[in-house]
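User:
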Amino acid sequence: GTAFDKPSAFVQHNPQHRSTTALSAAAAATASSDAIQSTRGGGATGFDIPLLIYFTLWYVGNYYYNISNKLALKATGGAAGFPMTISALQLGIGSLYGIFLWLAPDARTKPKVTMDDIIKMLPVAFCYAGAHSASVFSFSAGSVSFGQIVKASEPAFAAVLSQFVYNKPVSKAKWLCLPIVIGGVILASVNELDFAVSALVSACIANMFAAIRGNENKKLMETEGLKDRIGSVGNQFCITSILGFLLSIPFVLVKEGSRFGEFAEAFKTVPALRSNMIASALWFYGYNELSTMTLKKTNAVTQSVANTAKRVIVIIGVALVLGESLDFMKLLGCGIGVGGVFLYSIIDSIVKPKAAST
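Assistant: Predicted structure:
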């Protein structure tokens, strides 16, 4: 479509610049991650400057990932192109960057995990790869803003899983927030110009994988001594990325393996694919590691505000840059859905004190 001509032209105009920017941003992200880890535990610093820089880089990384990812998908024909190959290679390129940090002198201490630890990490890695691939497919089939609005409803999936699969009851107050979230998504879908059932279904599958991953990760981190053997959040994310990439390969071969020659040719001859795929991989790796570290250093309410603000910035910012529709119904649905998610995140801390005081 013509809406994508301008961004593509910009990226093709200077593909090297975009990739270099992404690489330096990912490097800055990781440096900042290590700096924050070293300041951890000094309670006196509270809301320090590195953390503020960290939040900014997380938002910027997420924003640029969404743009470069969509442009890479567009360059190969969207949903009919190579979404599975691109999503797997994004994990692979990110993993290489993580491995480089282990090998570089004084960059990051290597983990001391055993084969048994790796096997225990496989379910989390599988869900991580599944959530990523399904998200990429959703963004290839429809608009990024629509995919992001659906993905904002992840707490609804997490609530159902917690209640019925993991036997961790969810409060009535939280259940009452879910119709607001789902209503917002429905409203946003009504006039969506790029609406595709496959985009909606894929984003829902991504939510399911992400919710399972969250629960499995909690269980995994309760394994005795595992945290010490992994060593840091950065190491955990790198191991998950490597395993996720390896687990993605069979799916790539089944779905798009027969056309791999076509993809290789496009990678060589289409600058928009090459530069945006490398950039999106590095942005993805950088912002995910940043978000994990940032959320670990903040309380639950701050996390909720941060995630809510991030979604609004990404949904509106990306739609403006990529020329996607932003009509009143879509914005209203987005506002209601994201507001419902925020309410869901903080409702227990609002309701409980009242219950205690009566």
